[in-house]
Amino acid sequence: MGATTKHFIGGEWRTGEGSTMTDLNPSTGKPLAEFPVGTAEEVDAAVRAARDAFDNGWRDATPSSRRKLLLKLADLIASNATEIGKVASEDMGMPWAFTIGEAMFAAEYIEYYAGWADKIHGDTIPLSAPNTLDYTLREPIGVAAAIVPWNSPLSLAIWKMAPALACGNAIVVKPSELAPLAVLRLMDLVAEAGFPPGVVNCVSGDGALTGSALVEHPGVGVIAFTGGTATGRKVAERAGAQLKRVSLELGGKSANIVFADADIDAAAVQAGVGCFINTGQQCIAGSRVLVEESIHDTFLEKVIAFASNWATGDPLQPTTQMGPLINEASLERVLAFVDDARGGAEIALGGERLGGDLADGYFVAPTIVAGVRNDMRIAREEIFGPVLSIIPFRDEAEAIAIANDTEYGLAGGVWTNDLHRAHRVARQIQAGTVWVNTWLAVNPQTPFGGYKASGIGREGGKEALDVYTQIKNVYVQLR
Ligand code: NDP
C-alpha cells in the first residue's frame, strides 16, 4: 500500500491531523493508500489560505498572467496524462486508455478557459438620464469550493477549477473519499505550474465531515458540486441558509430515442457505448433506450451483439473497455436493480457478477434488460452501473412522453434520418443536453448541466463564467 497522502493548503503539503481512511483499488479490492479526513480546522485553514491568496494578489493579477498559468497547467496535465491517467485508473477503475483521454480532455478544458481569462468584462449601458456614464464590472466571487465525485475525478475537478481560476477566484477542492488520488496528484502539477500559494487548495476527506465543513464555511462564496441528487439537495439547502451561490451537477436517467428511420447499426453501437462506458457510472449514461416497435427485435439483436464483445476486465490492459464498479456496495446495488427487474422484464444479457480472475474486484457483466416499462424501478432510478433498459414505443408522441416521464433532465438522444423530426424532438426533450445521431459528445465550448432534478447552473461554455463572477453596476454622474 502507498503512503498516507496529505492535504495541499497554502501551497504546502500538510500532514492531516484527524483520522485517516483507506482508499481501495476497485479492480482488486486491495488498499492503495491511506488518506487524511480533513477536519473542520483543516478546511478552515484551506479557506483562509484561499482568501489570503485572493486578497493579496490573485484578485488583481493581470488577466494575461492568469491565462499563462492556466496554459502551463494544461501543458503539464497533457504531458503527464499517461501517469496521472494510471493513478485515476487504479483508483476508480476506468480503463487506463480512457483515463489518459480524460486527462487530455481536462487539459483542453483548461486551455478553453485560459482563453477566457482576458475576455471577461462588463458592458457600458446607455441611460436616458442626462450626463451619465453607466458600466458594469464582472468581478470574481472570492473563494470557490469544488466538491468532486469519484467517477471522473480529474475532469470534474477541472470543470470547476478552470472557469473559477480564469475568473480570478481562489479555490478549495474536495475529492471523493472513494477516489481522491488523481485530484491530489493534480495538486503537484498546480504547484509546478507556479500558481501563487493558496490560489488552489485541496483537502481530502469524506462528505459528512470534510464536505459539510466546506459547505458550511462562511468564507466560501460559491459551491460547485457534482454528485448525487440527494446530496445535492442537502448542499443546496445548507448553502441557501447562508445565501451562497451553488452550481449543482446531479444525477440522470437519460433517454436515448431510436426511431425506425435511423441508422440502426450506429444507434446500437452508440447506445451500448453511451450506457456501458465507465461501467455505467456516468451521470449522462443513456440508461433508457427507447426503441420504435417496428425495429425493436433487430435493434435488440444488434445491441446484444455489441455488448457481448465489450471487453470487461483489468483497467490497466490496453484492450479493456470496461473496468469494475467503484465498490462492493455499488455492486450489490446494481445487482439488486437487475433482480428487481426479473419479475416484469427479460434479462437479455449479463446481469451477474464476474468471477475467475476478476472475482476479487467489483466486476459485473454488461447487462441488457428488454421489455422494460417506464414505471419499473429500473427505469426510474439512477443505477450508476452498466445496465441498459430497452423500452419499446409506438410513435413520436409516446417516445417524447416516456423520455420526459422522469424526475431527471440531464441528457437525451434522438436517432433519426428525418431532419424535421430530429429538431422537433430535440426541442421537446426536457434536458440540458440533447444529442442527435450520437451520444456522449461533451466539449469545453458548450454548456453542460441539468433540467429538473439534474441540477442548477452550467459547467462548460461561457455560461460557467456566470457561476464564478458577480456583476457590479457603476453609475457615474458627469458634470
Ligand atoms: P455523492 O453525492 O455521494 O458525492 C459527491 C461528492 O459530494 C463527494 O465528494 C462526496 O464526498 C461529497 N459529499 C457527500 N456528502 C456530502 C455532504 N453532506 N456535504 C458536502 N459534500 C458531500 O455522489 P457520488 O460520489 O456517489 O457520485 C455519484 C453521483 O454523482 C451520481 O448520482 C451521479 O449521477 C452524479 N454525477 C453527476 C454528474 C453531473 O455532471 N451531473 C457527473 C458525475 C456524477 P465523499 O465521496 O467523500 O463522501
Explain what you see.
With 479 residues, the chain is of the alpha/beta class. It is built from 15 helices and 19 strands. Helix 1 (40-58) runs parallel beside helix 7, helix 2 (63-79) crosses helix 6 (181-193) and helix 4 runs parallel beside helix 5 (153-166). The longest helix has 21 residues, at 96-116. The site of NADPH dihydro-nicotinamide-adenine-dinucleotide phosphate (NDP) has 31 residues, from helix 7 and helix 8.
Strand content: 15-25%
Bound molecules: NADPH dihydro-nicotinamide-adenine-dinucleotide phosphate
* Low confidence ranges: none
Q: Fraction of residues in helices? A: 25-40%
Shape: globular
Query: What is the alpha-carbon Rg in Å?
Result: 23 Å
Report strand order across the widest sheet. Answer: 13-14-15-12-11-16-17
Residue-averaged pLDDT: 98
Summarize the structure.
This protein has 479 residues and is α/β, with parallel strands linked by helices. It has 15 helices and 19 strands. It has helices at 40-58, 63-79, 81-92, 96-116, 153-166, 181-193, 207-216, 229-241, 264-276, 296-308, 328-342, 377-380, 396-404, 419-428, 464-467, and strands at 7-9, 12-14, 20-25, 30-36, 132-140, 143-147, 170-174, 200-202, 222-226, 245-249, 255-258, 288-292, 346-349, 367-370, 387-393, 411-415, 433-436, 455-456, 469-477.
Features:
single chain, 479 residues, alpha/beta, six-stranded mixed β-sheet, 15 helices, 19 strands, globular, binds NADPH dihydro-nicotinamide-adenine-dinucleotide phosphate
